[in-house]
Specification:
Helix content is about 30%, strand content about 15%. It is α/β, with parallel strands linked by helices. α1 links the parallel β1 and β2. α1 packs parallel to α11. Bound molecules: nicotinamide-adenine-dinucleotide.
């Protein structure tokens, strides 16, 4: 089977790195790559030419299976031959029309965000790979904007206290943010609603912000469930008490298929120190901070608020390599001799094939 890799639009990453293509050939796939597809991720056409065919976009879109990080546009989807396999993140949880649209065009789509979060599927989980990069970059972004040091410093020009960082939401991105902030020497406090999070936060050397009464997440497949207004109010109060002393707040809290919970109201931001930085990774789903503007950096009374859910895009080489490895593991699992095994009884295949 031939896999087509188009150049991503408005994204520096590429779905397959050259090193992964070599491994895909060993399991029966051929790959055709759009010219220039890897350039913004630091992979040259010469590197691709050694392992794949290079072609113009229209030819790449004629492959038997098209893999892209972001879904193709509606206009392009209409040009794809019936029965072509598509692999991307279609996010049917937030776009309820996408499945009917793809089915209507006779396309066969696997949605990477629908792969169940089981132990066996961990190596295929693009959400985790990208979230981990975003958590790391969120801290670097904050450190670059903060008018202060992160670590404690003892110098001849005086002693500097370590920065205080709060992380709201300790899933994959949040835990990586905690680890990165700790490595830079900050004091970290963090909050999450999932029962498993407390121990994970503490094991990274951060303090847990305890709020009693979170709704039970058992059966939510590793995701959080929506919390009551009463709980969110209590949580906002706990956070507000600490925010006045914080230098940085990184927010990552998400509830799949819903608007992000609002954890930092305007009143909290207005109690923060001048020069403090908020990085809101939940910006694209409404933001955890009331003032966040998606895709923008704003200054509210001296507090900088960065609304960016696409930080993985700012580290495109490693992001592409990790995405590629996830894709290889997924294809290895769902295929035999380069052909897709359509066993819908299988949890991973049936769970991610959205055009049944
Ligand atoms: P996510 O991006 O959906 O959400 C981010 C975090 O926000 C979660 O930890 C969630 O509990 C938290 N959150 C939601 N509402 C909140 C609130 N009001 N206050 C504070 N925090 C709130 O989640 P994610 O990072 O993709 O994954 C969460 C967890 O799922 C992981 O930590 C892990 O345990 C599990 N997981 C398992 C696998 C696997 O086994 N294959 C893969 C990835 C993740």
């Amino acid at each position: 089977m031939r896999i087509g890799i188009p150049k991503e639009i408005n994204d520096s990453r590429v779905a397959l790195a050259p090193a992964t293509i070599t491994k895909l050939k060993d399991i029966g796939f051929e790959v055709i790559v759009e010219k220039g597809a890897g350039l913004t991720a630091s992979f040259t056409d010469e590197e691709y030419a050694e392992v794949a065919q290079l072609a113009v976009r229209t030819d790449v879109l004629k492959a038997d299976m098209i893999i892209s990080i972001n879904p193709l546009t509606d206009e392009e989807l209409k040009t794809i031959a019936k029965d072509t396999f598509l692999i991307s993140s279609f996010e049917p949880f937030s776009d309820d029309k996408v499945i009917e649209k793809l089915k209507g065009l006779g396309l066969r789509a696997f949605s990477l965000d629908m792969i169940p979060r089981s132990t066996i599927a961990q190596s295929m989980d693009v959400l985790s790979s990208m979230a981990s990069i975003a958590g790391y970059k969120a801290v670097l972004e904050a450190a670059m904007r903060l008018p202060r040091y992160f670590p404690m410093m003892v110098t001849a020009a005086g002693n500097i206290k370590p920065a205080k960082v709060i992380v709201l939401g300790a899933g994959v991105a949040g835990l990586q943010a905690i680890a990165t902030a700790r490595r830079l020497g900050a004091q970290v406090e963090a909050s999450d609603v999932r029962a498993a999070a407390k121990e994970e936060i503490m094991s990274l050397g951060a303090k847990f912000i305890e709020v009693q009464g979170a709704a039970d997440d058992k059966g939510a497949g590793g995701y959080a469930v929506e919390q009551s207004a009463e709980f969110l109010q209590k949580q906002q109060e706990e956070v507000q008490r600490r925010a006045a002393k914080a230098d940085v707040i990184i927010t990552t809290a998400q509830v799949r298929g819903r608007k992000a919970p609002m954890l930092l109201p305007k009143t909290t931001v207005e109690q923060m120190r001048k020069g403090a930085v908020i990085v809101d990774l939940a910006a694209s789903t409404g933001g955890n901070c009331e003032l966040t503007q998606n895709g923008k950096v704003i200054n509210h009374n001296g507090v900088i608020i960065v609304g960016d859910s696409a930080l993985a895009n700012t580290m495109p080489q490693d992001a592409s390599s990790m995405f590629s490895t996830n894709i290889y593991n997924f294809l290895k699992y769902i295929s035999k001799d380069g052909q897709v095994n359509m066993n819908m009884e299988d949890e991973i295949i049936g769970g991610s094939f959205i055009t049944k």
